[in-house]
Amino acid sequence: MNCIEILEKLVARESTNPGALEEGVAEDILALLKDAVSELSGTVEKLEVEAHRPIVRVLLLGETKECFSFICHMDTVPIGLHWEKNPFGEWEGNRLYGRGSCDMKGGTAAAISAFLQILALAKKEKQKPKNSLQMVFTCDEEGDMKGVEKAIQAGWLDKDTLLMDTEPTDGTIQTAHKGRFWYEWQFHGKAAHASEPETGIDAILSMAMAIPEAKKGVDALEKDSFLGDSKICFGQCSGGIHPYQVPAEAKVSVDMRLVPPYTAETGKEILEKAVEKVQKTYPGLQSTILITGNRPAIPHYKESLLLAKCKKAIEAAGYPKAQVCPFPGYTDTAVVAGKCDNHTTLSYGPGSLDMAHQRDEYVEKDDVLRCEKVYFELLRDFYMNGI
Asked: In angstroms, rounded to a whole number, what is the distance separating the alpha carbons of residues 265 and 126?
C-alpha cells in the first residue's frame, strides 16, 4: 500500500477515546508492518495497557545501541456532532476529511510508509542500519497518556532515544512544551436560607470571586523567551444542591499551562493566594486544592542532534528551511522528555493543529506526501550514517 492508501485505511477505522478505542487500528498497523519487519529479523511487540487498549512497537536493530524512533498515537477524540463530511473518510479535492485525519493519522501514515521504504532498502542492501530504527504506537494520548507511560516502563523509550512524534505542526518543527497542570479546586462555605444569604458563606460566589484573582496570578508570571506566557483555563464548575439555598460547596477544574521554571506547586500557590483574598470578605471560607495532573514544562534544547537531523532531512527532501517554534499543547514526546530527562524530542507532521479535534477535520494530501519524503530522508540518514 502506498502512503495515501495507508492513510485512507487508518481513517476508515474508528479509534475514538473514549469510544471504539485503539485495538482495531493497532491490528491494521501490525498488518502493514509485521511481515516486513519480521523478514529482517526485527522485533514486533504488542502490550496491553488496558482491555482493548494496546501499544505496539516495531524495531529494526542497528549496528549500535543508539535508536531513532517515531512515536504515533492511535487514538482520536470522539467524532462529535454536526459533521457535513464522512468522519471515516471523504475526499474533496486535495483534502481527506475524517476524524483523526489531521490528528494524527496523516502523520502516522506518512511515517509508516517511509519506514516501509527503509525496510525495503535494508532488505535490498542486506545490511543493518547504523543505529536502530523504531516505531512506537500508543494509546490514550488524547486522555491520560497511559500508553506512552507504559512504553517507558517497558523500556521501549528512554533518556537516549531520539524521538519524533508526527503531530500536525503546520510545516514547522516544534520542540518545547509548557507545563500542563490540572487541579480540582474546591470551595467550602456555609449553607443558609436564600432569603438570608448574609448568615451563610456562598461557595459559588466565593469561587466566582477567586477565579479572576487566579487569572491575575498566572498573568503576572514572567514569560519564557521561547515559550511565551503562561495560561489558565477553568473547564468545568459545579456547586450547590438547591436553587433556594446558599450553597455550601462548589468546585471548578483548572488547567494551567505554565512556562519554565514554574511547576505544579507554583500553580497551587496561585490558587491558595486567590482564596486568601476572598477570605478577607468571607473569613470562614475554606478551600481544598487537589493536583490531578502534573506534566512538567519542557524547555527548548537548541543543540539537539535530532533537531539538526530534521532540518537536514527537510533540506534533502527539497523543501525550504522550517521555522522552529514551541508546541502549543502536550504530546507523548513531552512525556518522555519530562519523565526520562530526554533532550532530543520534537514534533513534525502534516496538517495544522487548528484543525485537530474540529468538526469536519481534514488533512491535505500534498502535506502528507511532503512529510513522507522528509521522514524517508531522515530515516535514510540514520540508516546510512547513524547518530
From this structure: 53
